[in-house]
Amino acid sequence: MAAAFHAAGISALSDAPRSGKPARYDSATEKRVLMLLDQEPPDGYSQWNGRLLVEALSDVSDDHVWRILRKHKIQLQRRRSWCISTDPEFGPKAADVVGIYLNPPENALVLCVDEKPHIQALERAQGFIRLPDGTAVNGFSHCYKRHGTTTLFAALDVVTGQVRTGHYRRRRRREFLDFMNGIVANNSGREIHVILDNLNTHKPKQDRWLKAHPNVHLHFIPTYSSWLNQVECWFSIMEKAALRGGSFTSPRQLREAIDAFVKAYNPTAAPFEWSKAVVHQSSPKSLYANLCK
To answer: Residue 152 pairs with which residues in a beta bridge?
Structure first.
């Protein structure tokens, strides 16, 4: 040791490299596991799981299979849904809408408009259940009675966050125009920008109403991208706050509950802050094996 220290100095005191136990698996094993996920699962199964992978790869330990899945953050049992826009004009349409969110036209009214059709008036018992451990869980009865439906039109002011609503029996072009006429009448002479989805009631081939209202400008989001319309955020808030825990014996009672929520919501409303300047169109990857690249 002394001779080694004199020859190599302080570095001689460190452990020398050791061969250790030979590696049992390599990158080829990792690729085999990922490529197997791209194959059809065994008969009788709709998807792969960890146990099936281990059985199909008899020479790979279950620990190493799970190690590879964790490395690539693959969760086989988690199922999520998505809606992918196939609009060839996704870029220009998304840029138009996002540009309005980030820089609304000065002195103009910017609205996000959409409708929530066929909201059911459901009557069911509300209350709580005491679990064996003493915990009290709020909920409602699984059984319910249907008492009809109503359709809600809503316009969210992008600048203030306040919402204007309208109740209708159906969702047609005439109901949409009636709702829009009310908005135009309350903002006479003002420039109005309206963000909408691509429902056929919003964009007929010959739009005589739009020609009669030159101060109204429609901006259509790309197809299958309702998340770009901010009024959808408000619909979600309204659903959780006013409908999910309610019991209604008639459509009128349902409409009254929605109106009461709007009345309580608007005085303290705040705009949704859109912060992403660029929105990219995405698509699912086709092969797990590409993760090795």
So the answer is: 116, 167
pTM reported for the whole predicted model: 0.75
Nearest CA among 120, 112, 113 for reference residue 258:
120
CA distance 52 to 69: 13
**Cα(158)–Cα(154) distance, rounded to whole angstroms?**
12
DSSP 222: P
Task: Taking each helix axis as running N to C, give the angle between helix 27-37 and helix 62-71, from 0 to 180 degrees, rounded to the nearest 10.
Answer: 80
Q: Which of 16-25, 210-219, 252-261 has the lowest mean pLDDT?
A: 16-25
Torsion of CA 169, 170, 172, 176, to 10 degrees: 40
pLDDT at 293: 66
Residue 228: DSSP 8-state: G
What amino acid occupies position 182? G
Strand partners, 109: 192
Lookup result for tokens 């919501």: 265
Edge-to-edge strands, sheet with 216-220: 163-168, 145-157, 109-123, 192-196, 216-220
